[in-house]
Amino acid sequence: MFFDDKPKEECGLFGIFAPEQEVARLTYYGLYALQHRGQESAGIAVSDGRRIQNHKGMGLVTEVFHQEILHSLQGKMAIGHVRYSTTGSSLLVNAQPLIVYFQKGMIALAHNGNLTNAVELREELGNQGTVFQTTIDSEVILNMIARYRRYSLEDAVIKTMIDLKGAYSLLIMAEDKIVGVRDPHGVRPLCIGRLGERYCLASESSALDTIGAEFLRDVEPGEVVTIDEQGLHSRQGLPKERTAFCSFEYIYFARPDSTMDSVNVWESRRQMGVELAKECPIDADVVMAVPDSGTPAALGYAQALGLPFEEGLLKNRYVGRTFIQPTQQMREVAVRIKLNANAGVIRGRRVVMIDDSIVRGTTSSKLVEMVRSCGAKEVHLLISSPPVRYSCYYGIDTAEREKLVANKMSIEEIRKFVGADTLCYLSEEGLKRALGGNSVCLACFNGDYPIAVSQKFSKQDLEC
Fold it and tell me: Which CATH architecture fits 11-259?
């Protein structure tokens, strides 16, 4: 959207094995906590040990599920999914979890990420007579697992992993167990929790907190974990490769109260602000954030330089996922519907405004203009991540490379385009320091892709 110039969310996963609990309702709450990761569709699949039931629909979790539906989903285990399609069609047929029936029973699958060799795998399966019902690469994974189901589910998953290239976290549910998987590079997140004597899996630890579960640990890259009647079991499906956890989880996507790969998201964002203060100190009167993801960095920046932090931009908490913008005039209004400037904080002052990223630059220019119109003496725009110059192929919907403003312009040209007195980005080194030296994927900043992308790769064929 014009007024939401950010990379779009990926997908969110939640799964639980708890025969003594209302698993559908717990999954509903888990998905509600992960709603920020996808707002196009939601779904829950439940197994009672004999068969798998599934309900999914377009819209938010609260729109797709109501009391009667949750009551009808009775079982001992469940997996759920919230989706934002990184490419392709936003259709009910593409909503997850996906379910397949085959000779030995049923399997449900929920997927976060993108395969970079999905085109070849789809062609291979198609040549063998596989019929596809969706346009998403998740169905490729599901069909490959079903192809190997003469083995145990875990063995079938591991054999499938050998053929998969790209980024993925998976939840796979048979009638009697749930299997969680993370790709060998650990690009997409997945963690393990315990609720009483039972176990659950989620994209973020905040979802575990929501249902009162204890966070145990992250699933390791290449690890295959199983939850069943006997408890939690683990196997190393594939060896770890170059660890490349998505840096944008820390910068923007994840909830600030989540912990990922032993790093608290809020603290990592605050440290980005501290590093930004070292690299770009500004003599200013007030520091403010572009809420909400820019807030921790702005606080860290203000604390490091001893400057006051105030709420100069206020967010409308009731803005929905979409807003009809039929005319240019309405597009101008749209920015102010989501964010409005607090003139009492801004007027007559030199302002540092901190945001987490710039993708196309359209919203940044409107925000700078808005702050100036409130009487700011100076507007210094600081970004708590490096310039986004490259597209992501691993499950984030960034713009095509030619639409990325940092790919087309120098930093000075972007500064002029957005109308700021200063424009400063956090360096890659500063970002790494803020993350405590964790090995992360920086491909959208420097083009160093940790996983090879197929020559046949087409964004139209890939979705989480």
Answer: 4-Layer Sandwich (3.60)
